Amino acid sequence: MWKTVLKRVLMMIPQMFLLSVIVFLLAKAMPGDPFSGLIAPGTDPAQIERLRELAGLNDPWWQQYLRWMGNALHGDFGVSFVLKQPVSRVMGDRIGNTLWLSLMTTIILYIVGIWMGMVAARNEGKWQDKLLLIYNSITYGIPAYIIYLFAIFIFGYTLRWFPTGGTVDVDASGFFGILLSKIHHMILPAVTMALLGTVTIFTYIRTGILDEQVQDYVRTARAKGVSENVIFRKHILRNALLPIAANLGFTITGLLSGAIFAETIFGYPGIGQLFTSSIVQRDYPMLTTLILFSGILALIGSLLSDIIMAWVDPRIRID
Amino acid sequence: SSSSSSDKGTDKKDSKDEKVGDFNVSYANPDKAIEGGDLTYGYIAETPFIGQWLSPLSTDAIDSKVQSPAFAPVFAIDSSFTIQNGKDKGGLADIEFDKDKKTALVTLHDGVKWSDGQAITARDLYYPYEIIANDKAKSTRWTDSLANIEGLEDYHNNKTDKISGLTFPDGEDGKKLLIQFKENKPGFTQSGNGYFLETIAPYHYLKDVPFEKLVSDEKTTTKPLVAGPFKPVKIVPGESIRYEVNENYSGPKPKLKSVTVKTVTPAKAVAALKAQEFDILDGTTNDLYPEVKKLTSKGYEILGQQDLYVSLLYYNVGHYDKEKSVNVSDRETPVQDPKVRQALSYALNTDQINETLNNGLNTRAIGTIPPVFKDYASKGDGFPLDLDKANKLLDEAGWKLDKDAKGKDGKTNDASDKGYRVKDGKTLSLTFMARSGQATSEPIAQSYINQWKQIGVDVSLYNNKLTDFNSWGDIVQSSGKTKENQSWDITQGAWSLSSEPSQQDLFSASAPFNFGHFTSDELTKDLNDIDSEKAMDPEYRKKAFQKYQDYLQETAFVTPLSFKIVWTPVNKRVQNFTLDYGENELWAKLAVTSDKPSDK
Amino acid sequence: MNNEKILDAKNVGVQFLIGDEYLTAIEDVSLTVHKNEVVALVGESGSGKSTFATALMGLHNPHQSKVTGSAVADGTELIGLSEKNYEKIRGKKIGMVFQDPLASLNPLMRINDQIKEAMSVHDVIPANEQDARVIQLLTEVGINNPERIAKLYPHELSGGMRQRVVIALAIANEPDLIIADEPTTALDVTIQAQILDLIKDIQRKKEAGVILITHDLGVVAETADTVAVMYGGQIVELAPVVELFNNPKHPYTRSLLRANPSLDTDSDELYVIKGKIPSLKDMDRNRDLFIDRVDWMDTEKYSKTKPELHEVAPNHFVRGESWKDFYFPEDQDNSNESENV
Amino acid sequence: MSGQVTPSFGGALKREFSKDKVAMISLILLIVILLGIFIGGTFFVKRPDYMIVNLLERYKLPFTDGHIFGTDGSGHDVFKMLLIGGRNSLFIAFAVTLITNFIGISIGIICGYYGGRIDNIIMRIVDFLTILPQLMIIIVLTTIVPNYNAMTLVLIISAFGWIGTVRPIRARVLTEANRDYVKASKTSGSSNFAIMFREILPNIISLIIAGLTLDLAGNIGLETGLTFLGFGLPVGTPSLGTMLNQATNPETMTGKPWVWIPSAIFILIIVILIIFVAQAVRRAGDQRQSQ
Amino acid sequence: MSELLRIENLKIHYPIRSGFFNKVTDHVYAVDNVNFSIEEGQTYGLVGESGSGKTTIGKAIVGLEPITDGKIIYKGEDVSSPATRKKMEYNRDVQMIFQDSQSSLNPRKTIYEIISEPIRNFDNLDEAATKKRVAELLDIVGLPQRTMYQYPFQFSGGQRQRIGIARAISTNPKLIVADEPVSALDLSVQAQVLNFMKKIQKELGISFLFISHDLGVVRHMTENIAIMHNGRFAEIGPRDEIFNNPQHIYTKRLLAAIPSMDVNKREENTANRKKVEAEFQSSKSEWYEPSGRLLPNLMEVSPSHWAALPEANSKGEKA
Ligand SMILES: Nc1ncnc2c1ncn2[C@@H]1O[C@H](COP(=O)(O)OP(=O)(O)OP(=O)(O)O)[C@@H](O)[C@H]1O
Ligand SMILES: Nc1ncnc2c1ncn2[C@@H]1O[C@H](COP(=O)(O)OP(=O)(O)OP(=O)(O)O)[C@@H](O)[C@H]1O
Ligand SMILES: [Mg+2]
Ligand SMILES: [Mg+2]
Questions:
Q1: Quick one: which of C80, C301, E214, E284 has the most CB atoms within 10 Å?
Q2: Taking the mean position of all CA atoms in its chain, how far away is CA B143?
């Protein structure tokens, strides 16, 4: 098992390499560079040109790439052109936020999605089922950010249940104070994101349950005298959960891209928001690292999916 | 002979009652201030703040706003940005110029200290020059203006490691820094002139940090030393800062106990204000105004002030030659003709746009110098909407209306049944590189195109779309005759101006930011005159500005579009708040008159 | 054979809700199973064998079916028993073995957990003895190395082993009655033989009653004590095994025996039963259902009265009267017409 | 259950729709709306209607001066904008859905049918493409494409959109390809192409329909996200995204809801209608199979 | 009678892949070194337990399975390459009937489309002629012509199997491989289909390779029988020889396992079966290689009767 994981990790290296080249070239293909936004009478284009030269932006792309890659291999992802901070530090600040938010969203998403799928499957064809199907299709069809805005207005400002931006209150103190404040800040974006993202899990669970409950082993369990509730929990649900378990890795990486919108609107400084601003400001070091990072996350996500799958489904054992 | 900075600064009494447009500049709160109190200051921003506290390295406008409670100006200024000497004025130092020796002597006031209790020294005045000029620190703030200080350019080019023009008359730990200039400049007495720096940096605290690490060191990012009335006690990166009183501040004792500064995105700003989340909300945009105005009965007062801002239309008449660092007006284009440019200018409905899209917060610019510079500001009427005049100008220029003329899109004029204008068989077709970025960007661009069509000019958008800021920056700044920079005829620009009104940086023959590349001997002469030694006489300078202004009106080498009013909602419990540029000790003076924000 | 009745089913009927009407799937099925007796239920697909078994297990969805009649096991009336009480019967009093051993096992649970689950729901075997009991059971069903096998997952076992596990599940609580619904159809002949031997062994050892559902006449001939032949949701013939094979009465039974390409007969052409069982909707049980498929005989004759089971010889029951007149035309006139639909 | 009904897809469809009144009404409404949008958008909205800014007409309330839905911040009639924007967005949604599904289904079928090495290679490529930062690539492409319009947007988005379709199709085809009718076709001398697209394709139609409808529903709001990030359609192409995006301005969201609510409701209605119709279509598709 | 098809040293090995790199770690020897030939107009039975490689041989003969090694010679040409088969229009002559009638008929196609598929591909008939031919074929298999435009699900299992037969005989093939054509059918229907196949085989002079694990059926249908186990032949010979004079222990075991219809001798049968089983277990090592596969060489018992006897293999080793 561990050997396989290691092998998979090794396999990731060429992929990451290819990804990094693509990402780098893309960043270069975008019009302008981080310095072209510095247009103010107080700045001197000659000085900007000088800095551009110093930053090596006038070198051929592959030289820039090799330099960047070489540094990256040493854990040095460069300094953000815009934020003037080492990329690794900015990421360090932001990743934590995003990961916590994603984690919370995932948990809520799974609870709600599974619950919806169960309700729909148990009431197949009835109004509950139809309603949930419509709900899930609509949340899939309607751009989420409009709803995010509404959520902020209603729960943030009108009802004032939740803070409307940031990750933590400046006044929060003490371990629990800060923790509570962080959670308080996360609830609104997490719940909204989760409620709008249930469609995949809902569909998996619903069809999963419908498929599993007619399986022969369920009949066997009944014949053993196992009660319906136990059958549902221990047999049907567990088996119906398999595909979602396999999907967990992807869900997390999917959330990261969803975070681009949510974080921007909720004013939650995570890497999603960083991504948007880095694009707008052509902050290459930031952007390339971010994308590389999300690429790695995606790869880890798929590896994780496989491991989870192998772990929960004895029929698939990676070895 | 030495002359101290002008003392004629505007009277405080006057500025208190001053009005800009319909707004008061200051808010007079008649109630009695309470002891201490917490104040929340919001700043509207799309992005989190960066958090660079070392001002030679900081370029972020958000940073300077969210750090303002911890900031004390090196030199006090009056409402017209003229430097004011005297400890009572609120600065950390005085500056004396010696015209004959071409020097300036900066003298720190007694007892000025960093927030760690260490005295601010001459070395701390010198240190920012090193940082800005040293390549390793990668500051973007180096400009040619600084080369006017003896030896600084050599230092910048790594020829020396001492700046010969900066000396310490009473030693590094003393209070004085002597600056040796190559030339005297009329702008010396204006703050923001760029010929010398107006910042300090805590050398004793940072001396062990190498230049290349300065930008990212925690001593400049999360654990800074400050000299202002408040010091940061807790920083949530990018989001908020909590300030408490800086006991080592040398000015008047701050009235508030603490200040919290937070950023808020534009989409949420109004709602936050409705929820009384902020006492002061800065960084407002015009589109928020109608909603915020409704809050004047819900606890807020809106103050306003002229902004250091002007927006323009550029006409592309040439290119920038990078080798020679000079603009060349050599492009073959209808907009070479001043009549065409004037006609295009008179066709604009700027007043209407400002009234509607900008909610009356922008005013049509009658020149390029905004009204804050009371003495130098443009006079006259600029280019008000006058379609008849525009049509006449085009007729004179030889462009005749033709009903059947086809535009670039192969279609006839759908906005005016008179058709497009034609000369020598060619339609007057122009490309407009309009910038994206604001909610109003698109209607404004379309509105302009619409107006131009009314006078028979076929204008289409560059690449059929609005151009984002970075792409725009790339195109307008490219030098030489590249295909890209030759493919547009008209573009928009907007400047946040320095508090020194010189126009050299914007329009001189050598200015890289002269995006239209318009040059003429007359313009060069006018611009030089404004910054000549003679112009150290304010009266002379006033006339020089007027002459430049007349030339602009005649040639329309650019079309001034708008000036702007900055407006700030302030909760009615706040005392002593003002937008007066001459207030140097705002944060120390701020107080509140109740525990909770008012909602009436 | 012992005469103690383990199951006494009388007039069991099942109706399914199809569309918006209830259609009768089985009707008037009466069957007695004694201790130590193997009763085989044969008949072609759709004749209602599984429906009957499922009815005994109370596994029909109450919202979509109606079960009538009476079935008494161990003094308890099964029909109409509440779900709660049924849970105490299933797996404890009656064990069931299904056809497809892979599908019958939960793919995500280890063998021992699945067997233990069967024990835990009824507290017959104390928790601390269950592990030992699992090993004992696996040994009983002839699995070598039970300690290892117990820790495996179903997909890691061969078909024969899986079927043994399923049997182990069914007998975990030593039920009085074992219902095996086509337990060997998915298996090879060699393994089939082993499994059948196993079922017989266990049945003998535990003195349980067995209902063996199959459509393989060979299996019946080798295993059963009593045979019930089902057709169209009814038992058409019921007799001790020797009697049935040596002296079949009902036309369907006789046709079936003839259609079998057995090793012993050497005819070139097999006997063909024309047509197929009518769909539930078209089934008219007031007439002889099978005789419609015998076109050389006058069907109207047997449609007048509802066919009932008659005892034609001791313990030999046959439904209706048509058997009395039934003959195979080949035997009569040796005509060799091939039969098509 | 076998019946006497004709099993043609058309017949099954008819039956499903006549049985399911909601689906029937949805279908009629959908057709009416689509026709209305396409005819209205093409013939009744002229270029000046959405190109020319009329500042005096800004933010007119609904039902004033002949604007039933009022006007927006540029003085455009919201109803006309809805017609033309709806047409453009629906065009984009349909085009993207068709292109991505065409590519995705083709590749999915090829992978699932051939299996083995071909499958392995293509799937590794697909794996890699899934980790590519699609949003960024789309954004980069929209900034560097010289003539950016609805068609280029469709192509750019389609360039990646197909990836998600491949997997489910492939999985189904893998099982389908193992069924004996495929072997029978092979021994009947049919070419691989014929087997893939004439034999297997009709058998995965319900899966395809399910995917198509979900995609269509998702793609209607597709360009809104890009608009939000500032990379939406160019000026000359009004869309539901640009209309909806006005809601990001708090003043408009709360103070001038008529500007954006019609587009939001429009999307909502279309999505719901598509779902109701799709369910019936899918049932019809499923019905022809088996038993 | 002349030889129609000959199989020489046929080997079909499936790689077992494992690990992430899908490396081939082992092989399934599905068919291992099998020789036999099929004569014109004769029927052959292939019997063996599940997984013994019967289907694999069948599929290899019709060209559905690429072969690992060996030759399949038809009309003097090795038809193991798809190109040769295509050139010869091999499948016009060699057809297959599948076990699962449900899955072998495309549920989305009409009977006409299904039966006409080989005709369209091999015979250049126009629409009308094709229709005529399909009608003829339906007639042959005893289905009314009106069924032409119906779909597979509207038929019973037996009828469906006959449709499959109609398709297989549509191009007048010389050889039909029938892979367990009746094992999914009820006894009553099975008789129908078997009779029918026999009739066609006689009338059209087609050779049959009849694959089944039901010895009763095989005995009824075929003249020659091959007994297979784990990819190799245990015994091959005329039907009566195999049944009356089995040589191989595995054949004996198989025969003993068949439940007898003779109720009067059931104790006897069971005893016999247990005896054979015990004998099999005890002498297994003589008859099988240590790997569990049969001994590779067949020994001539009579000119048409061969069996993998231990003596043959000990001799073989010496030779
Ligand atoms: N849950 C159900 N709903 C509706 N009809 C059913 C249901 N279960 C069985 N039937 C019908 O009842 C009849 C008897 O079916 P049953 O499964 O008992 O037959 P069987 O003898 O077990 O057949 P097989 O040999 O195929 O298993 C059939 O016509 C079948 O279609
Ligand atoms: N595509 C394949 N890949 C790997 N192994 C295979 C494949 N197809 C068949 N096998 C293996 O080859 C062996 C022979 O299979 P085959 O299907 O020929 O057996 P069979 O005798 O037809 O069995 P059955 O009676 O179950 O149909 C089996 O062990 C099977 O698992
Ligand atoms: Mg059954
Ligand atoms: Mg097989």
A1: E214
A2: 16
